[in-house]
Amino acid sequence: MAILYGPVRLILRRSAQRHQQLFSPTKRQKTTVVDKPAERSSTVSKREGSSIATPAEISPRPLWERLGLLSECFTGYARAQERRPWSTQFGTSLVVYLCGDLTAQYIDGEEYNPFRTLRHLTIGGIISIPSYLWFMYLGTIFNYPSKILSLAIKIVVNQIVFTPIFNTYFFGMQSLLSGDSFADAWKRIKRTVPTSFVNSWKLWPAVTAFNFTYILPQYRALFAGVVAVGWQSYLSWLNQRAADEEKRRKGLHMDKS
């Protein structure tokens, strides 16, 4: 019996060890499986926590997107500008020139002259598309790594190239559409363009800098148009003052003769 008891005890011990080896991994796997959802849930919670932006991380919407009904108007204008840029720009120019002339006539305090408004609208309609193409082209050139340098060159080029050409066209067409000769139109240009060119430096560099820095491309024409209402009022007033001076000079010349 003692001889058999030793081998039996050894066999039972080995079977017990084998039993522990077979079943202990399963327990660990069960424990691991049970722990995984907790780890997963913690991971998900971390991801969800990281996906929630803090107020400091949320960038504020542009001002024109937080103005209610006015924001809807801006959005509609941007869509129209994207779909039909030339038609939208043409209509915008007509509105700007109309408001500018009406304001100038109101400031003059004289009786309303519809032919003067018609001349203004004709001039604005003709120049609307070339002006739009010029500013779109200006936005694509002179783009250097330095934003300040790019902006400064755009302003200088716009003032030196576009402003004299536009003012010459504006005052010359005003004179020609009024029935004056080319000689009279040239006199009108020499009398008004230098003054308007100097005064343009007081306004349009700041407008151009703000426009190219803060205004999105689809709203730049609209922003410039709003500012141009006041500028067109000034040009219309300046043109009318030159026309009145020419009439007085002609009247004095006829009296002397």
Brief write-up:
The protein has 257 residues and is mostly helical. 84% of the residues lie in helices and 0% in strands.
Q: Can you offer a commentary on this structure?
A:
It is a single chain. The protein has 257 residues and is mostly helical. It contains 8 helices and no strands. The protein is elongated, with a radius of gyration of 39 Å.
Cα end-to-end separation:
160 Å
Quick one: biggest sheet? none
What integer value in Å does the Rg equal?
39 Å
Q: SSE order, as H and E? A: HHHHHHHH
Could you say which overall geometry the principal axes of the C-alpha atoms support? elongated
What helical percentage do the residues reach? over 70%
- List segments where confidence is low: pLDDT < 50 over at least 5 consecutive residues: 26-48
In terms of quaternary structure, the protein is single chain
> Overall pLDDT, averaged?
79
Q: Number of helical runs?
A: 8
DSSP strand content: under 5%
Alpha-beta content class? mainly alpha
Number of strands: 0
